[in-house]
Write a structure and sequence with these properties.
The protein is of the alpha/beta class. It has 14 helices and eleven strands. The protein has an eight-stranded parallel barrel with strand order 1-2-3-4-7-8-9-11, surrounded by eight helices. Strands 5-6 form a two-stranded antiparallel ribbon. The structure holds flavin mononucleotide (FMN). Flavin mononucleotide binds next to β3 and α11. The site of flavin mononucleotide (FMN) has 20 residues, from β3 and α11.
Length: about 375
Amino acid sequence: MTTTAPGLSYEELVAARRASGVAMFNDNKMKLGVFGSNCSHGLMATHAESTYELSWQHTQKIAQIADRLGFEAMLPVARYRGMGGETNFNGSNFETHTWAAGLAQATENIMVFSTTHVPTKNPIVAAKESVTVDHISNGRFGLNMTMGWYKAEMEMFGGTQREHDARYRYGSEWITIAKRMWTEGEGVDFQGEFFDIKDAFSDPKPIQQPYPVLVNAGNSPQGLEFCARECDFNFIAFADPEEARDTAARVRSIAHSHKRDLGILGYGNIICRDTEKETKALLDHILEKGDWEVAKMVSSGLGSESGSFDKIKALQERFILGYGGYPLIGTPEQIVEQMAGLSEAGIDGMMIGFLDYVEELQYFGERVLPLMKEAGLRS
Ligand SMILES: Cc1cc2nc3c(=O)[nH]c(=O)nc-3n(C[C@H](O)[C@H](O)[C@H](O)COP(=O)(O)O)c2cc1C
């Protein structure tokens, strides 16, 4: 099965990415992305007050601020169905390839990602859509692949959800076909367990070489193996920097066994104010107004069979504070200390959210980014 691009070593892949000027391969030690701004309530399951809304105008504004601040990525959550609770968390949401296409037109430098449930989309169609957004953005498109873990969501598409390991076998065939569509000029034939493709063509090819940056959030052994073999970044869930260090080392060593490497991304919301007192007051308020109903439902499984969500089962608070991610809470100085700790643990980028994306991104730009630069985390 394909690992990197046909005929390219990992070093050549990275060289091609850097020559394409891909932001996720720039020299910043801690890359930054805005995560979840395509879904109602973003990454925070709470009724706490915010100006955040799911309108196109607001969506563009968030992306334009992040672009101006030099963030590397806009990364959406793939969601077709709300998760219930009082907020019906994420129940209103924008489809992610078309979201990325719109943002590609509205921004200049930031990468625009789609997050795609691979079982919902034919790989030839997904490869073609991805190339189209790559051209609209002049080589700034990235693809985050998810295998689908939310049973009721996957069942919307007919049939039953595949058992866990089969999801990754399916994903491996899917991405092999997509990579061949992006890189091969001749008709592509492929026979596998799930696909029977005959004489398939896709033109034009991506602007970004050799194909769009690939991300996956596999956290189970099968997920880590898939990601280490096929992707540029593993997007991991972790409870603390020590766990981040272990997971990062594990997935990197799997990648090394395939004669390649990859970067590690984490995620979490930023809860930051000038003083510890103000930060604590905001944190308490978010939790007090939290949607505990959905947090309980998610932590009790939702039929997910998902390694990483089991890991965070007891952590309903973490769900409210940011989808089970690692929340960064504190003053600007404390946030930067925490970022430095994560960088030291092997995290190459944080995909972040806020209670109020527009207001707090601006604050982050004014108060946190300069300190990240001083700390050598960004230039
Ligand atoms: C950082 C992160 C982001 C994720 N984003 C999505 C998403 O947008 N949509 C989705 O259905 N699943 C998402 N997932 C779930 C993963 O795709 C995956 O199912 C989960 O991490 C379980 O890993 P496993 O399948 O290897 O057990 C995300 C998981 C993590 C850790």
